[in-house]
Each structure stands twice: as C-alpha cells, then as structure tokens.
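Support request, please re-run this one:
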Amino acid sequence: MGEHAIGMQADITNPADLARLAETIEARWGGIDVLINNAGLHRGGTLDRLADEDWEASLATNLTGPMRIVRAMLGQMSPGGSIVNIGAVVGFRGFPGDSSYGASKAGLAGLTQVLAAELARRQIRVNMVVPGFVMTEMTSGVSERARESILARVPLQRMGTPEEIAEVCWWVAGSTYMTGSVVFTDGGLMCNL
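Re-run finished. Output below.
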C-alpha cells in the first residue's frame, strides 16, 4: 500500500465532500475499482425516547450517505467494479432501542438489492457484508453487562475483529460472479437468534 494510499477525510452526509473525493480519486488514479460503504452511526433509544435528530442522523449516515457516495463515484467505476455495503445484524433482526440504526441498515440491505439489479448492466457488482459484534470504536462504549449478553448469543463466543471483516470484504469485492448477495460475518449470531 504505502505510496499508493492517501488519507482523505469527508462527511458522507455532505454532497460537496463526496464530489471532492471523486475529483481527487479521478485525478490520482483515474477511477475506482472497489467502493466499501462502511461509514456508520449508531443512535439508540426506545421509540418514545429517540430524538428526531438522532433518527435523521442515522438515516443520513447509514442509508442516504451510501446512496450519495455511490452516485458520486459511479462515473469513476469501470465494468468489473465492486460496491460492498456494510450492514448490521439489527437490520435483519430487531433489538429494542435500535429503531433508527436497524431501520437505516435494513434500508441499506434493500438499496443493495436494487443497486445490484440496476448496475448489473454496467457489470458493477453490489453486495452486502453483515458483521456481528465486532471490536470497533462504535462498540467500545457497550457496557460489560450488554457485552456479556450479546456474546452469550454468539456461537463462536467472542467478538470479531476489524481484520476479519476486512478479509471478507476483500473476498466479496473480488468475487466476480456474485451480486445482490448478503454475507453474514457474525460468529454465527444470526443462526442463534
């Protein structure tokens, strides 16, 4: 990687930032082969306590943002390109207090299906990787009690690592006859719910 990598910061909810990213990528590399939509925002709270602002921020980051970045980068993608959306178990199974996160990730699953069908004629593949309970900044604030409760439902009895999710994303991005698929990478959590 080294000299072939650059760091860029952008707000996925800001169309001007996304346009700047697309311009930078085109100038530096002439296009993009793989787009991984992994920005995520979790704003929890039961329905009666969830602020409208938190609902809107979750949708903006987890659903509208990926749609906008795909739109911004589509002109940079050639046939054979791959888009990998990062989902969440809560987008497929409900958990109390996760209405905004769950709804946004369920919407992303639907968007994945639509884009897979729509972009197939351009030979661009769109799939979703669904991590389970993974050690990230987002999960670092989970209480010990909640962590134990979640891990009790994970058949592999441990949290995943970002590296394990990255391996699956790499494989999905390179799978040339797969589109519209959902790949659960959750230590078996979905089969145990």
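The chain has a mean pLDDT of 93. Helices lie at 15-29, 52-73, 99-119, 144-151, 162-174.
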